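User: Predict the complex with NAP.
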Amino acid sequence: MSTRSRPAFRDGGLTVLANRVARTGATTPAWPPRTAVVTGASSGIGREAALLLAAGGCRSLLVGRNGAALDEVAAATESHRIAVDLAVPGAEINVASRATELLGDIDLVVCSAGLGAAGPFDAMSPDAIAQLVAVNVLSPMALVRAMLPAMLDRGHGRILIVGSIAGSLGVRGEVAYSATKAAMVGFTDALRAEVGRRGITVTLCIPGVVDTPFFQRRGAPYVRRWPRPIPPALVAERMLAATGRGRAEVWTPAWLRGAVRIHDAAPSVYRGLAGVFG
Ligand SMILES: NC(=O)c1ccc[n+]([C@@H]2O[C@H](COP(=O)([O-])OP(=O)(O)OC[C@H]3O[C@@H](n4cnc5c(N)ncnc54)[C@H](OP(=O)(O)O)[C@@H]3O)[C@@H](O)[C@H]2O)c1
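Assistant: Here is the predicted structure with NAP placed in the model:
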């Protein structure tokens, strides 16, 4: 199936959303969105999200560092692109002002840019920890902070953050990465509580293992036989559908939610299972 005919925008959740919004006085966020900013759009999940958004008629500003990869996605989606290092403080101001200049009001912000790190925590350099926090924690917070006032003024907008199962379970050998993704659980929960009644939806996507260059980039390939990596297009489709419905979170694959329930309800059982399955 071509990306242009994918069903992510057949949204049955808009009625529920409209009723909720009517009670709070905020306006209905547009869906499909007309405009979006997508970070991590040069690769993997963010790239697939950009393709799907374009298929739904959305005009986007694509954000990444790799100019050639961004050019390819921008050409395929007739989008704008900006090559910036989001780890550099202030980059988000550049992105936000360019987005407004090129697209006007922004309906959706997708924060997919991120990087991994694997290996024993006691061998990890402070610089590597700082870089991970800068990209995975500070950059989405800074970008949302930069985009939020205009959304609040308009009384509607959508925010989609790509977290990780590592943020809910804590993965051995990925201590710092797990901590950065756990930060996104707190960030999205608190932000939703703060702005949810003012027309802003906040969705956290919690993927498991996804077949992208993520593992190669972190310098440690994915070697487990289970769970098998899922395609990034599937993650993008599910997270955008959940965002359209105003859902708080979306787990991909969905069974991950069960693993977290065991982790939360019976931590010692979970630790035993994790010891067996890794
Ligand atoms: N793959 C998985 O198994 C998995 C599982 C759970 C969660 N996730 C999360 O999913 C998100 C997307 O990852 P992915 O799997 O799609 O990985 P990916 O293919 O490696 O894509 C990562 C994206 O982040 C961008 N990025 C990284 N550092 C950046 C920086 N300093 N400034 C600007 N952009 C930067 C990259 O842009 P450039 O290449 O242009 O630098 C790239 O577009 C990440 O937040 C990751 O933590 C992935």
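The longest helix spans residues 126-154.
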